[in-house]
Amino acid sequence: MSPGLKDELEHQAVASWGVLLARGALHEFYAGAQADGASLSALMMMLALAESEGSTLWIRHGEHDREVGVPHPAGLAELGLDPARILFLRAPDPASALQAGLEGTRCASLGAVVIELWGAVKAYDLTASRRLALAAGTSGTRVLLARMATAPHPSAAETRWQVRAAPSRAMAANAPGNPAFEMTLMRARNGREGLRYPVEWDRDARKLVSRLPSAGAPARRAPLSGAVVPVSFDRPGASSVYPQRQAG
Q1: Which of 58, 93, 102, 171 qualifies as a cystine partner to 175, CB 3.0-4.6 A?
Q2: What are the pLDDT digits (tens) for 146-194?
Q3: Hey, where are the domains in the chain?
Q4: Beta strands per DSSP E along the chain
């Protein structure tokens, strides 16, 4: 398969739910509420493994285990994800997690690098995000950084998202439906900030699919008040969306 055709097929797969997460870039994801932490972790693996053919380096600050539970290979397999493609690293502190993430991002053979941080991590500042973004641009590796129990702040991320768990749609005989999420685009360079993307995980196809009436239908624009995060957080003094436990 030619590189051009491979890139086009990957573009189509990624864009099937309306958004292209560029390779060679840093993308941030914030849990909409503390209770969405476990869902966000699952979404990170779905995005990482569905959008690449290589292995994924999954780096987790140890605080996550106490707050959202320990990753379970059998559970990942039940979602249609291959645990054999995951290199899991538990870091003792946020600084170590970021350093390991930076080293992993420099490895072009990885399909994706996922970094999970809990709380207001001082080590993840504008400089740290720029290092990750530059390394991603050089290697072509996609970096997905998950943040929980903290508010967004300025960074070099290509896109920034808020993620909330959504009710599943029951299947035949009222069987449990596919995992579902509502993703709100908080920062992008295409002028689409504030749009919501309701998606669900197709286990058989191993990809996220849109829950909109048709694939080409426009996403809903999120209101700028209430429970939804405001359009942009690239400003000082942004407030948190929900009460948070400071850590890190």
Answers
A1: 171
A2: 999 999 999 999 999 999 999 998 888 888 899 999 999 999 877 778 9
A3: 21-221
A4: 26-31, 56-61, 86-91, 112-118, 142-148, 159-166, 180-187, 195-202, 207-210, 220-221
Q: What is the pTM of this model?
A: 0.81
Token pair for 16: 């099937």
- Please choose, from the candidates 166, 211, 206, the residue with its C-alpha nearest in 3D space to the C-alpha of residue 79: 206
Return the structure tokens found at 225. Answer: 């008040």
Cβ atoms 85, 117 nearer than 8 A: no
219: its two tokens: 């996403």
102 closest CA partner among 134, 78, 70: 134
CA distances from 148 to 39, 92, 237 (A): 11, 17, 18
Residue with tokens 């969306």: 241
